[in-house]
Structure formats: structure tokens, C-alpha cells
Design brief:
Largest sheet of chain A: 12 strands, antiparallel, barrel
Radius of gyration of chain A: 30 Å
Number of helices of chain A: 17
Helix content of chain A: 25-40%
Helix content of chain B: 55-70%
Mean pLDDT of chain B: 81
Shape of chain B: globular
Strand order of the largest sheet of chain B: 1-2
Number of helices of chain B: 9
Low-confidence stretches of chain B: 15-25
Structural class of chain A: alpha+beta
Radius of gyration of chain B: 19 Å
Strand content of chain A: 25-35%
Shape of chain A: globular
Strand content of chain B: under 5%
Largest sheet of chain B: 2 strands, antiparallel
Largest interface: A-B, 85 and 70 residues
Distance between the termini of chain B: 45 Å
Order of helices and strands of chain B: HHHEEHHHHHH
Oligomer: heterodimer
Number of strands of chain B: 2
Distance between the termini of chain A: 61 Å
Mean pLDDT of chain A: 88
Strand order of the largest sheet of chain A: 10-11-12-13-14-15-16-17-18-19-20-21
Number of strands of chain A: 21
Chain lengths: ~650, ~160
């Protein structure tokens, strides 16, 4: 009895192990992986059938499905479940086992090429559904046109003629903090036809990969995106639509990086895009996002490129740009300023009273403003009118549908502009302000640090890791100005006197968006952060004060240029925490936070912040905090940081080195 | 007599309705409204506006021929209409200024040869009020005005093959 029971248990255990495999790999785990029977609906001729068998045999002998170009076209990746395609939409596979057996898929594809012409839709033929596979297999196996009929694909050919790519660019849309999915920026491709005549970049077409959703709530989008709750698809649309979306509506600068691809690679790129159009990929916000998917796509078109990371934990768009630049696959970018950037540049060229006049043209009394405009010289009239129009476009958005007042003003302004002969001054690359350098020129995104510190009665070492991305003390070049975005920030300390490790901080995310007050650009500053933190009240050892915290706030900021460049801010924060270290296990309250971020010269920054939180519910002990941090850049990716901090009964000083990787 | 009056009136009404319907702003096959779904540039905190143009039905690669596009490529005969509907504000701004990428793109879509673009730009700047007569002018109306003006101009009617 006992023996039977033990065997039964072992059998159950084995079945249990097999269950996830079975679930993951599909129904046919125990099937024969070596050969696939030819597809049904065979072509009529015996000659064609034997040629098909010849090709299959040739492919099998050379193990053609193991070659890099085939693996890339199938988006195959090797994992612990074997080699499987990442494409999830079933239409990408001609074999029922194609997704997990790319050899079977190759044979099914060869079979498919021999099928008779479809009665109603010629483009339903496998040669037309998979033109990239057809092109590669034709070249690799040397298809004989007499024995394998090449099928016409009218819809694919028309689409390809519409795209006709002669060159391609990778476009990077700068980070946009107000949307969780856009905080790290976005990348897509622009495919350019031969630019003859008046064919401008705006009229070219783009290829974009993104999650398919109509979700408007950013938090829901972020959560579902993190868990892979969306299908990612490739879409095509004119570049001017993308420019309206990113540049004009969201005011994100665009960086256009020319890609170094040969005509054959561009041809394969178009063919493969068509293949991908019929499928979808699981979209994961962290590591299978918009930027990631462009890399295997580029590799499929140009197998000589090695740009897709093998098993990324996370993929940050700026890093993909950096990688392409380092490999020489992308050249230095062209800059396309957003509506907001254009407005600011035009305004900066005006004298103070001209700025006021431009503002009045948009929001002040129209008659007096227009009369004042007439009193200027034609050149200055043009400059003021152009700045006013840019302000109007920014303020009321680019939609053709706008309110009556805006329409009236804009029409009057543009009629006036039409009568001013002087041409507009071009808005090129602005210099001097941070946030306007290309994204790959900034410090790298991952940070590791070692520090030493002293607090009352003890000293400590700190080891820190930060997955992403940037805080106000980091060098601002290449990052959105006034932005802090941190995710996965771990600070591990070892207290020397107690000889004990503890987690000082484990932040899930921390976001701070400072928008300095600007009469033409009034945006609220805001923050949100959450994570574990050791409260360190100075009365108990730090490892006994760990809580889980959530904080959010809104406020205002202002800029000045006193000793360099300073940003002042003041916030009203709401703060909540739970943890055994708190009386009653939680607290809920809030209070003011104020601070200054100062840049003194190119490589030295300071950040001073004070806050005072009181708690109405739960543990009512108030939490005052003062912190002064400073950073000196030793190199772009090596920095020295010093900090002084004071909490309720604890003072601490620390010095450390950070390395960006 | 009455019957004939009624018939004439009905025909006139139907004709007017047809003209009115045709003149209604199509907003570029509805693609304009697809682009500007969330037109509030100032305050959008925690929005999911990435890929605000989420019309995968319209821009999906394997989407067959719709009204104005196929697989995301805009049909040749609809290109001007879609361009002006989506870019109306930027285009108006540049037509008034007499220069810019949107205005040049527009000239290209009207079939103007590259050498004729400067002529086109000064023409549209000079005739701005004829092209965009009021603050309520719609993109479709403006397109018609431009085409009319070009056809009437001796130089541009040759240089821009409408």
C-alpha cells in the first residue's frame, strides 16, 4: 500500500511538473517535432509537388531554420522553454506548431508557397502574406520560377509602392512626465521615399509599435501594461500625424536619427512590416515596449545588426538610441522642436515690451494690441506676430476645432501677418538650456553607488542601485528639465556599531515634475512616490523603523538666475504610511515641502529641501525633515555626492561615489 | 402651376442639401478628429495619451481599403483633404507667414513643381484673405478656395498640376 502510494505521489508530481509545460507549449507537447506533413490543398502538378519536396529536403539537410535570418524573421528567442517565436497572433504561423517549432514553420511556409492561387483575394496567398520569408527563401534556396509559380500580390505591391522606402530614420519623442507610458520617451521609425520635388519629411510615412488600447486613464494603462495586458501592434501613418500628436499636442521635442540601411535591407524592412501587420506581440511596459520591438524588427531587416538585447529586464528608449549610435547604425540626429520649444525660442528673441505685446495679442485687449503692433518696424512686427501665433497654438492646441474667441484672434493675427512682408526667423536647435541635447548624450540610465556616512554614535556604509533614471542632482543634459524619475531604487546600509545590514530605502517609483512659473505656460508642479523607507527617528535603530510609504503633492515652482540657475518650489503634500514601526500601524497626513535646486556652473549642483508633515490619523508624531545634497560630476557617468540630512532626532552626513552604467 | 412650383422647390431643396452635405467639413475622412481626440495641451496629468491615435482599425497594416486609406497609406485623391484637416492650424500660420514646412508640403500635394513653390508661397500669402476669408473657414472650404485661386492664376495653373 505504502509503495503504491509513493509511486502514485511521484507520478502525480511528474504530471504536475509537466502541466505548466503543457499549458505553455500548447496541446501537442508529445508530438513528433522532426517532420511536418505537407499542408492540405496541394497543387495539382506532380512536378510541382516533387520540386516542393526537393526544397524541403534541401532545407532540412542544411537545417535552414537555424540560420540567423530565419530566426530573426520569426522573432524567435531561446528561453528555458526552448526556441519560440515572440509573435502571439496566430496568423503569423502557417503551421499549427509554428510558434514553438520554427523548423516546422519553415517547412509549412515552403508548402504554402506552392498552394494554388486563392479564388477571391490574391493577397491571401502565403507568398503575399509573407513576402519577406519568400524573398529570403527564394534567395537562399534558389527558387526556380518555372517550377514554383510566383504569385501576384496586388494589395501588398500597392502598399509597398506607397511606402517605397529609400532611407529610414529612428525618431525619438522626448520624455513626457504627465503620462506614465511616455515618461521614458518613445521611439518609432520614419520611412522616406525619394525626396524629389516638394516631398517634405512631414509627408513621409511612419511605422510605429504600440499597445492597442483606447484607455485614457494613465494609471490603468501603466498597471495593465506592466502585466502584459495589452496586445502590441504595428501601424503605419503619415509623419505629420505623429508630429501633431507628439510635437504639437504633447509638446515633446523630436529627434530624428538617420539609419544606415542598404536598399536591400530597406526592401526587406517593408516586406517584413507587412508580415508583422497580421499579428500582434504581448506588450510589456518594462521590457517588451515600443522601443524594444523596433530592435528585433531592424535586425530582421538587417541581420548584420546586433542591437536587440537577449534577455532584458527592462528597456529604456534612450538606451536603444544610445546602442544604435554606438554601433554606428544611427547617425547624429536632426532636431524638430515641439510647439512649446518653438514658442519659447521665439519669445526669447523679443525685447520685454515686445513680449508683453505678444501676450496681449493672444490674451489682452485686441484693438490696442494691434495698434501697438503697427507702431513697430516690419521686422519686429513679424517677430512679435510669429511669437504670438506660436503662443496661441500652444495655449489652445492644434485642433482645427477651437473656441470662437481663439478663432477670432487667430484669424485677425494671421490676416495681419499676411500683410507683413518680412519672413519668419527659423527656429533651429536652441542652445544653453538643459533638456535640449540629444537623449543619448546624457548620463547612462542605471546607477550604482557606494557611500560612507556618519550619524549620532555610529557610522555606516551604503550600497545603492537605481534601475532608472534621473534626479535633480544628476547632470541635466539629455533629460527633461525639472524632472525626477526614479524606479527601482534600493539603498542598502550596514550599520557599523551594530554590524548589521538593513534596507534604508526601496523605492518603487518617485516622480517629481517641476514646472517653473511662466506666464505663457502655466502648469502645476506635482509629485508622486511610493516605496519602503526606514524612518530613522533617532530613537530606535533604523531597521526597526521600516514603513511602506505613499506620498503625492502639487505645487508651484519658479526659476531665477541668482548665482547660476536656481529653481525654487513649494508643495502641499499628502503623506501616508503603514508599518509595524508606527503606532496603530499606519499614519495619514500631510504638510508643506519647499526646496531649491541650484546649478552652480556646469558640474556642480545643490539641492536643498525641507518638509514638515503632521498626521491627523494613526501615528500622530510629526516628521520634520531637512536635507542638503550636492553633486560634483567627475565625468559624465562618475559623480561624487555629499548629503546632510536631519530628521526628528537624527542627523546624518554622507559622502559617496555613483557610477552610471 | 402649383405642382411645378412644388417640384422645383423640392429639387432646389434637394440640391441645396446635397451641396450643403458636400460642403460640410469632412475633417479629412474623420482622420482629423482621430488625431485630435485629446486636444488639451495644458493640463494632462496621468494621461494615457501615448499613441493617442489609437485607431488600429484605420492604421493597421493589413487593414484593407477604407474610405481614405489602405494599410495606413492615404489614398492619392484624399491626400490634400486629409493633410489640410490634420494640419489646418499650422498650415494657416505658415501660409500667412509665406514660408514653412507645412506650406511647402501643401504645395507639393497640390502638384506644384519644386521651382514653383516660392511662387506658390508668395501667392497664397498675398491672397491669404481670399483663401481663408473668415475665422469660421473650414479646412474643406480653404482647400476649395486654394484650388480655385490656383486654377485662375496663369502661372500657377501651369506649374501646379491639381
Amino acid at each position: 500500500m505504502e509503495k503504491a502510494g509513493a509511486s502514485g505521489a511521484r507520478l502525480l508530481f511528474l504530471l504536475a511538473l509537466a502541466a505548466p509545460l503543457r499549458f505553455a507549449a500548447g496541446a501537442d507537447v508529445l508530438g513528433d517535432a522532426a517532420l511536418t506533413p505537407p499542408l492540405a490543398a496541394l497543387p495539382a502538378g506532380a512536378q510541382e509537388a516533387s520540386y516542393r519536396d526537393q526544397l524541403r529536403a534541401k532545407a532540412r539537410v542544411t537545417r535552414l531554420w537555424e540560420e540567423r535570418p530565419w530566426r530573426l524573421l520569426l522573432h524567435a528567442r531561446s528561453g528555458w522553454l526552448g526556441t519560440r517565436s515572440e509573435a502571439a497572433g496566430p496568423d503569423f504561423f502557417l503551421s499549427p506548431r509554428g510558434r514553438r517549432d520554427i523548423g516546422a514553420e519553415l517547412e509549412a511556409t515552403l508548402d504554402g508557397f506552392f498552394l494554388a492561387a486563392p479564388p477571391t483575394d490574391p493577397d491571401a496567398h502565403p507568398q503575399c502574406r509573407f513576402p519577406a520569408r519568400y524573398a529570403w527563401l527564394k534567395g537562399r534556396l534558389g527558387f526556380d520560377g518555372a517550377r514554383l509559380t510566383e504569385r501576384p500580390c496586388p494589395r501588398f505591391e500597392a502598399w509597398r509602392a506607397g511606402l517605397d522606402p529609400r532611407s529610414a530614420s529612428l525618431v525619438f519623442a522626448a520624455a513626457y512626465l504627465n503620462s506614465p507610458a511616455s515618461m521614458y520617451g518613445h521611439t518609432f521609425l520614419r520611412l522616406d521615399r525619394a525626396s524629389e520635388g516638394a516631398l517634405t519629411p512631414l509627408l513621409q510615412y511612419t511605422l510605429n509599435y504600440s499597445a492597442e488600447t483606447d484607455e485614457t486613464n494613465g494609471i490603468v494603462f501603466a498597471l495593465r501594461g506592466l502585466l502584459g495586458g495589452y496586445a502590441g501592434k504595428f501601424t503605419v501613418m503619415p509623419y505629420y500625424m505623429k508630429v501633431q500628436e507628439y510635437s504639437n499636442m504633447e509638446s515633446r521635442d523630436l529627434w530624428e536619427y538617420p539609419l544606415d540601411l542598404t536598399p536591400a535591407e530597406l526592401d526587406l524592412l517593408a516586406r517584413h512590416a507587412w508580415e508583422l501587420g497580421q499579428t500582434w506581440f504581448p506588450y510589456y511596459f518594462l521590457n517588451r515596449n515600443c522601443s524594444f520591438q523596433l530592435l528585433p524588427f531592424l535586425e530582421a531587416a538587417a541581420p548584420r545588426l546586433q542591437v536587440a538585447p537577449a534577455r532584458p529586464l527592462w528597456v529604456i528608449p534612450a538606451d536603444t538610441v544610445r546602442l544604435l549610435r554606438l554601433q554606428g547604425a544611427a547617425a547624429a540626429p536632426m532636431f524638430r522642436p515641439s510647439q512649446r520649444t518653438t514658442m519659447r525660442v521665439r519669445r526669447a528673441r523679443l525685447a520685454p515690451e515686445e513680449r508683453r505685446l505678444a501676450g496681449d495679442l493672444v490674451t489682452g485687449p485686441m484693438d490696442t494690441a494691434f495698434a501697438a503692433l503697427d507702431s513697430l518696424s516690419p521686422d519686429r512686427q513679424a517677430a512679435v506676430a510669429d511669437a504670438a501665433e506660436d503662443y496661441l497654438l500652444y495655449k489652445w492646441g492644434p485642433s482645427p476645432v477651437r473656441d470662437e474667441e481663439a478663432a477670432r484672434r487667430e484669424h485677425a493675427l494671421l490676416v495681419k501677418r499676411g500683410r507683413i512682408a518680412a519672413p519668419p526667423e527659423p527656429v533651429g536647435l536652441p542652445s544653453g538650456d538643459p533638456g535640449w541635447e540629444p537623449p543619448e548624450s546624457g548620463h547612462r540610465t542605471f546607477r550604482a553607488g557606494l557611500a560612507r556616512g556618519w550619524a549620532k554614535g555610529t557610522a555606516f556604509e551604503e550600497f545603492s542601485l537605481r534601475a532608472a533614471l534621473h534626479d535633480p542632482l544628476d547632470a541635466p543634459e539629455g533629460y527633461a528639465a525639472g524632472a525626477q524619475l526614479e524606479m527601482g531604487h534600493l539603498r542598502l546600509r550596514r550599520d557599523e556599531s551594530a554590524d548589521r545590514f538593513f534596507v534604508q530605502e526601496l523605492t518603487v517609483f518617485r516622480i517629481l515634475s517641476l514646472s517653473p512659473w511662466d506666464p505663457w505656460d502655466r502648469r502645476t508642479s506635482w509629485k508622486a512616490e511610493t516605496g519602503f523607507e526606514a524612518l530613522e527617528d533617532g530613537r530606535r535603530p533604523p531597521w526597526e523603523t521600516t514603513v511602506y510609504r505613499f506620498r503625492t503633492g502639487a505645487g508651484a515652482a519658479a526659476e531665477a538666475a541668482v548665482a547660476g540657475r536656481e529653481t525654487f518650489y513649494i508643495f502641499a503634500d499628502a503623506d501616508a504610511a503603514v508599518g509595524g514601526a508606527l503606532r496603530r500601524g499606519f499614519r495619514l497626513g500631510g504638510g508643506p515641502t519647499a526646496g531649491i535646486v541650484a546649478a552652480m556652473g556646469g558640474r556642480w549642483r545643490a539641492w536643498f529641501e525641507g518638509s514638515f508633515f503632521g498626521y491627523a490619523l494613526g501615528d500622530g508624531r510629526p516628521e520634520p525633515r531637512l536635507r542638503l545634497g550636492q553633486q560634483v560630476d567627475l565625468a559624465r557617468d562618475l559623480t561624487l555626492r555629499l548629503a546632510l540630512e536631519r530628521r526628528r532626532d537624527r542627523r546624518e552626513i554622507f559622502a559617496g561615489l555613483n557610477l552610471h552604467l | 402651376m402649383l405642382k411645378r412650383t412644388v417640384v422645383v422647390a423640392v429639387v432646389a431643396f434637394a440640391a441645396a442639401a446635397a451641396v450643403h452635405a458636400a460642403g460640410q467639413n469632412d475633417a479629412g475622412c474623420g482622420l482629423g478628429s482621430l488625431v485630435f481626440k485629446n486636444n488639451s495641451p495644458a493640463e494632462q496629468i496621468l494621461a494615457a495619451t501615448t499613441n493617442g491615435i489609437s485607431g488600429n482599425q484605420t492604421f493597421g497594416i493589413t487593414t484593407g481599403t477604407l474610405g481614405c486609406s489602405s494599410g495606413g497609406i492615404i489614398k492619392a485623391e484624399k491626400e490634400r483633404e486629409v493633410f489640410i484637416a490634420v494640419n489646418f492650424r499650422n498650415l494657416s500660420k505658415e501660409l500667412a507667414a509665406g514660408q514653412g514646412e507645412y506650406a511647402t508640403s501643401f504645395a507639393g500635394l497640390l502638384g506644384c513643381k519644386k521651382e514653383a513653390v516660392p511662387t506658390f508661397l508668395s501667392f497664397t500669402k498675398l491672397n491669404y484673405e481670399l483663401i481663408i476669408p473668415t475665422a469660421q473657414a473650414t479646412p474643406v472650404e480653404v482647400l476649395k478656395n486654394v484650388e480655385t485661386q490656383i486654377a485662375a492664376d496663369p502661372i500657377l495653373s501651369q506649374a501646379c498640376t491639381l
